[in-house]
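Help! Submission page says 'invalid entity' but I think these are all valid:
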Amino acid sequence: GAVVSQHPSWVICKSGTSVKIECRSLDFQATTMFWYRQFPKQSLMLMATSNEGSKATYEQGVEKDKFLINHASLTLSTLTVTSAHPEDSSFYICSAQSIDYEQYFGPGTRLTVT
Amino acid sequence: QQQVKQSPQSLIVQKGGISIINCAYENTAFDYFPWYQQFPGKGPALLIAIRPDVSEKKEGRFTISFNKSAKQFSLHIMDSQPGDSATYFCAARGGDGNKLVFGAGTILRVKS
């Protein structure tokens, strides 16, 4: 149990375009989901906390207008990287919080902006 | 400000040996301490976790030792295997919206 999926697993987009990443909790409901960013050989950096039905809370230094988060249902949160630039290339990982506050992580999405 | 300090950055262990990774924290509000295992190109997976009311927790070959007074905790991997080669992250959680604070990670390589 406690499976979290992400789609797509990898995406290549051109500079200036937008890309949407989906995060789904497959076998449990998650009122809270988290979005992380991870650069090569580095730790996970929390970008934002997503709560179902309300606005996301962004960490300091994360541009909320660039990284749009929507948590429309108890099993789905989306991250849209708007007007992507090469420096946005990274590994994006979501996690879904279960009723016992455990975070279950998705497999990640590799974004490459050319 | 790094709230969870993890060491070493990298570790090479012979097959069958014991791998030990250490973490230290400052925030006394932390009340949950998980360890995650991450393989290249994959998301982290929960390995084992402990709460501060116990000093040790063992699951199979993996053991967490917890020292509340020293604000330190460690992961021990017994009989390390090449399949254990991965990056390991310690983390801590407490207050602040249940956010996880991660250590910097340890790259473990088990030589066969």
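Support: the input was valid. A stray whitespace character was the problem, and the output above is from the cleaned input. The interface with chain B takes residues 4, 6, 32, 34, 41-44, 46, 49, 57, 91, 93, 95, 97, 101-108, 110 of chain A (CB under 8 Å).
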